[in-house]
Design brief:
Blueprint (H helix, E strand, L loop, with lengths): L2 H25 L3 H35 L2 H4 L1 H16 L5 H13 L4 H14 L7 H16 L16 E6 L6 H14 L4 E6 L4 H14 L2 E4 L6 H15 L3 E6 L7 H14 L5 E10 L4 H14 L3 E5 L9 H9 L3 E5 L7 E3 L2 H9 L1
Parallel strand pairs: 1-4, 1-5, 2-3, 2-4, 5-6, 6-7
Antiparallel strand pairs: 7-8
Helix pairs in contact: 4-5, 5-6, 6-7, 7-14, 8-9, 10-11, 12-13
């Protein structure tokens, strides 16, 4: 091999290597380019996140725009369908008014309350009045009057010297923990300092569920070991709230059957202990599943006697509930329905409005 050929081979190798280096540099971005690319990628992710949040906000707005009439579709059908044919004949037939009473009973208003409502509605009708519309107006007016006159606000201590305590009671499966989570989100968004007390120490799932709600609402949570004394957990939560300067404690309690005397006695202990520390129990809220009908009324009686219930939260009112349980609870127990659950989202726990409720049932 001649010297000229060797030199040519060397030059060829150098050229190939140089070309490879150039290609590699072109493929690898500079630090500035990398930063720009990273920024662009972050921007794209941010845009997607903002877009999703906007979609969720739009969805929430759409849900909030849904009327109570639409949410109570099943309850309205259960009440107004049987009332329809009866009201057509109300002005001329005592038998028709009996059918109205029967329809109210089937809607979970209760026997005694239904009879009283029908008699009062009939008395409202002028002697010259006739037709379904006049009868319906009289019935609506009577229901509104029976549901009005209750304080439906959620009380807080007036002195501001410590946290207010809202204690939630009820049987298993009524939606206590979910109700607490929804209220926590609402109250923190309103600017309140909130501490959650995971007093249901018998179900690990309950404490875990409450912890998820605490994370969503940026609330502090106090929980105990499995099987710990529920009263001690609530007490610790109240003291933690006082130390943090929080003004509200939402206390979960273990679901218990209202017929079990030892469990109800334990609940009474939780109520007493909650008042012994730095806070004051201003609300004891009974959470009732509206679909349980008259059985829910039996629960309400027992819990009211045991722990002095100050208000009722009716959940699942958008489901197969017949709606009349609202009237029954207030008519027979004199306890205000303060909140109703009409869906799964946090915004679906709404203050109860008697006039809107009656209008929605008959719309």
């Amino acid at each position: 091999m001649t010297l000229e050929i060797l030199l040519a081979l060397v030059v060829l190798v150098v050229v190939v290597l140089a070309a490879a280096v150039v290609v590699r540099r072109r493929r690898r971005p500079s630090a500035a380019d990398a930063l720009r690319d990273d920024a662009a990628a972050v921007g794209e992710v941010a845009d997607r996140v903002v877009g999703r949040l906007a979609e969720r906000a739009d969805g929430s707005a759409a849900r909030s725009s849904v009327s109570l009439r639409d949410r109570l579709g099943k309850a309205r059908a259960a009440l107004t369908a049987p009332l329809g044919s009866a009201l057509e004949r109300t002005s001329t037939s005592a038998e028709a008014w009996t059918e109205v009473a029967e329809a109210l009973i089937r809607a979970d208003v209760g026997l005694a309350a239904s009879s009283e409502i029908v008699e009062a509605a009939r008395a409202r009708l002028p002697s010259a009045a006739h037709g379904a519309s006049a009868a319906q107006e009289a019935l609506q007016a009577e229901l509104r009057e029976r549901l009005d006159g209750f304080d439906r606000s959620l009380a807080r201590r007036a002195d501001g010297d410590g946290p207010s305590i809202w204690l939630f009671v009820g049987v298993n499966g009524t939606g206590k923990t979910t109700t607490i989570g929804k209220l926590a989100q609402r109250e923190t968004q309103a600017g309140s300092g909130v501490v959650l007390a995971a007093g249901d120490t018998f179900r690990a799932a309950a404490a875990d569920q409450l912890a998820m709600w605490a994370e969503r609402s940026s609330a502090h949570i106090v929980r105990g070991a499995a099987g710990a004394d529920p009263a001690s957990v609530v007490y610790d939560a109240v003291e933690s709230a006082a130390a943090r300067g929080a003004d509200l404690v939402l206390a979960d309690t273990a679901g218990r059957f209202h017929t079990e005397q030892n469990l109800m006695a334990e609940l009474q202990k939780v109520r007493r202990v909650a008042d012994r520390g730095s806070g004051v129990v201003t609300e004891t809220l009974l959470v009732l599943d509206a679909t349980t009908g008259q059985n829910g009324l039996a629960q309400a009686r027992q819990f009211t006697e045991a722990v002095d219930v100050t208000g009722v939260v009716l959940t699942k009112l958008d489901g197969s509930a017949k709606g009349g349980i609202v009237v029954a609870v207030q008519a027979e127990l004199g306890v205000a329905v303060k909140l109703v659950g009409v869906g799964e989202q946090a915004g679906d726990l709404i203050p109860f409005d008697a006039s809107e409720f009656v209008d929605a049932l008959f719309a």
